[in-house]
Amino acid sequence: MRASRLLSLVVLVAVLASLPTAGQVATSIVGTQVYPASAAVDTLTNTIFVANNCGSDSSCTVGTNPSVTVINGATLATQTVGVGYWPFGVAVDSGFDHIYVGTCGNDDTCSSLGGVSAIYGNTLSVTNVTTTGYLPSWVAVNPSSHYVYAVNECDDPNYPNCTTMGNVTVINGGTIQAVATVQAGAYAYSAAVNAITNMIYVVNECGSDLTCQSPGSVTVINGSTNTVVATLAVDVTEPDAPARIAQACAAQFGEADVLVMNGDVLTDVDYGALLERHRASDAAATIATKTRTIQVSLGVLRFGDAGDDTRLTGYDEKPTIDYVASMGVYCFAPRALSFIEPGERLDFPDLILRLIAAGEIVRSWPSEDYWLDIGRHDDYEQAQEEFESVRERLLPGE
User: Fold this and answer.
1) Are 85 and 106 in contact, with CB atoms under 8 Å apart?
2) Residue 291: exposed, middle, or buried by beta-carbon count in 10 A (0-12, 13-18, 19+)?
3) Nearest Cα to Cα of residue 40 among 67, 8, 62, 13
4) pLDDT of residue 109
5) For 101-135, what is each residue's pLDDT tens digit?
6) Which residues contact residue 339 at a Cβ distance below 8 angstroms, ignoring those fewer than 6 apart?
7) Res 249: pLDDT
8) Which of 222, 50, 40 is nearest to 140 (CA)?
């Protein structure tokens, strides 16, 4: 096991995170077994689950009695549940009251196919599922679909010298059965799930390079079809700026127009219509736009006398202001991407301003489609409230 996984006690950060801000003061340290690797919280039951990588083996050589420590968030009382060898990643599906732990199954040498231990929260009984790869370091859950994603570092038993790429085992949380395998990259290690878009993002520590001499990557999986829709390179020095990603797309697709979007956009915009309009125009760039209205909660004063700047000439009580906003969805003609220097970090607004300054034509594409910027707290809360009512629009025919 990696040295970075060594810990002897778990400070209950997970417990603190579930408390109101005013209550987030560390008051207790709860003992677990040896080398707790990760933790997850069931917010409905206020229970914390800690994966003990080495079980009760203080030397961490054979992983005796591999376990999960179950902590009552109210009393901090603990119980221990036995799971497969070398447990590491843990995830909770509160809706099903299931807890999933990535393990090496029944093999303490990790030279056999790995496993996921599914713990039933109400009884703490365990069902073990064999994965389709080796050393499942991480598990992630989509709480909407109740599907589980076990990230296997290798597709062979040779870790830490894998000779094949990792993969992801897809498990149906309702039946606790593996239903699909999706190819990932070299040393696939962790994953995150967007429950709204049903997309799964798998981090590959070494990209597609089993020698680990290259930057890492992220495999993007469509949870509806269990297919890979993209593999994104991860810069080793800094995150790729959006415009640089657009440039990378251009390098891949040659002289084709490129459509790119921000990752925090929730919309059912007609991308085909947008791209068609862009191609039919003379624009170097086309931006999908949405009109929004701001309600000013104050009385706004107007001063229209140039000779007397204290003389009131108007008073608007709580006016509304309409403005045109970028939806974070862009089309670029090939020539636009020549304005980005190789390797340059450049955000989209800066690229647009650079095009305008050079005399290039930039056009808007007004949209009446559903759109939220879920990078904003207000929009994210609205998305949570509205998602089920607009689900068919966003995920037609899922």
Assistant:
1) yes
2) exposed
3) 13
4) 87
5) 999 998 888 889 999 999 999 999 999 998 888 99
6) 351, 354, 355, 358
7) 55
8) 40
| Radius of gyration over every alpha carbon of the chain, rounded to an integer in angstroms | 26
Enter the tokens of residue 9. 């006690």
Q: Which of 161, 141, 137 is nearest to 149 (CA)?
A: 141
What would the pLDDT profile of 248-278 be if each residue is shown by its tens digit? 555 555 567 888 888 889 999 999 999 999 9
pLDDT greater than 70 at residue 188: yes
Judge whether 258 and 244 are in contact, CB under 8 Å.
no
Q: Which two structure tokens, joined as six digits, stand for 66?
A: 């591999």
Check residue 35 and give its pLDDT: 85
Q: Which of the following CATH numbers is that of domain 242-301+314-394: 3.40.50.300, 1.10.150.240, 3.90.550.10, 3.30.710.10?
A: 3.90.550.10
Least Cα distance to 395 among 144, 191, 95 occurs for 144
pLDDT band at 235 (very low <50, low <70, confident <90, very high): low
Q: Which of 132, 139, 128, 80 is nearest to 106 (CA)?
A: 128
> Would the pTM count as exceeding 0.85?
no
- Domain 3-233 fold is Methylamine Dehydrogenase; Chain H (2.130.10)
Asked whether 81 and 67 are in contact (CB, 8 A), the reply is: yes
**Could you tell me the two tokens for 72?**
């009552």
CA nearest to 269, candidates 386, 397, 373, 142: 373
Angle at 198 between CA 195 and CA 202, to 5 degrees: 95
Per residue in 352-362, pLDDT tens?
999 999 999 99
Q: Where are the domains of the chain?
A: 3-233, 242-301+314-394
Tokens of 356: 């305008």
Per DSSP, the residues of 153-211 read EESSS-TTS-SS--EEEEEETTTTEEEEEEE--TTEEEEEEETTTTEEEEEETTTT-TT
Q: How far apart are CA 309 and CA 49, in angstroms?
A: 65
